[in-house]
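note to self: dont lose this again. the chain is below, predicted strucutre after it. 428 aa total, dont forget to put it in the shared folder this time
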Amino acid sequence: MAHFRFVHAADLHLDSPFRGLGSRSKMPDEIYQRIKQSTFRAFDHLIKLCIEERADFLVIAGDVFDLRDRSLRAQTYFQKGLKRLAQEGIQVYVIHGNHDPEDGGKASLSWPDNTTFFSSQAVESAAFVKNGEEAARIYGRSYPTAQFTERIIDQYIREPDVPFAIALLHTNLDGDPDHDNYAPCSRSELLEKDFDYWALGHIHQRAVIHEKEPAIVYAGNIQGRSIKETGARGCYVVDVRNGDIISLTFRETDDVRWYHEQVDVSGMDRIQQVFDRIQELFQDISDKSSGRPSIIRLELVGVTSVHQQLFPVDDFMEGLEPYIEEFFAQENWVWPESIRIRTRPAVSREELLASHGFVGDFLRMVDEIRQNPDERTLIKEEILKDLYRHRDGKKHLSLPTDDELDEWLGEVENMAVRLFYRNEEETS
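---
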């Protein structure tokens, strides 16, 4: 039985608009353009990886494009990459997901013969042949529409005498509440099916759900697209010999990497110490990003006597700029997307709670809200209802989770302490 190698990728999201980058005016144009091009450059890295690894074929488990009405540039760029693989004799098998369903707008392009696009009407199969013999069979189904919640798992049926069976499925496995429940199925259902490898898409965080017999793998996306998608992004290279998976290796493809980091400034009594610590963090990130640029969201935490000097945040960011500029001269630059100040003045929360002034009363009220389910519900469903039920905004916003509400309460608490607390030296 033949030895073969394939690459499993998903969620390319070519031409993603990268919303939520904050104030465009404060971002250097070279950084903005690099971010804007990052999904295309990550796709280039994927194509290069397939060629360098001498892969026999590439499987893509949905969401090649970011929009239902795919941009023409994204389509022709994808076409160009497939042609490069065709020149190397590398086959490609593709399903479409909720972002690029079959009923979306698309150009009438000619696709190279090395590429198989699976139907949106039913699960199909395609044979991969090496040295004159079938080495594997790939199964898949594309989404007909964006809101595709049909259970199609029962349509995946391994045919007789298939040497190695690979299933492409764009799905929310086990109904993860953080993701839309498209083409739902369960881990137990996949384990019961007679397949060797489940190539999953839709969840952007890579994960080996089950290592083999069968392997169940989320490749994640090839490029992080926001501060919610931190760390390395890429694909899996899979080696198969005599019908067995002998290696499953994650490989990085991202062009720009996202980080969300905390800096503990506890005990610092000079603003210079804060700047120095941030500069050290930037250098650490630059060193571990394997030559690629990075976007970072910073959170300053801890109890410090320089708490008041960290505000206003815009002034602090301006003071930090000279320390950042040296990173712009190198390819693996680091750019602070934003800085959140969550430090506290050098006084304990217990002391503030025990005080009889405004700050103490306010903190006690926040604690009561934290501990009272009725109060939490009142805030989420009544006080915020005008925002979350606005006719234009409601389709983009959902009610805050308990964790998000706790985060907001913490920010409000910090703001109250910052604005209204003064230590004895300041008030004397």
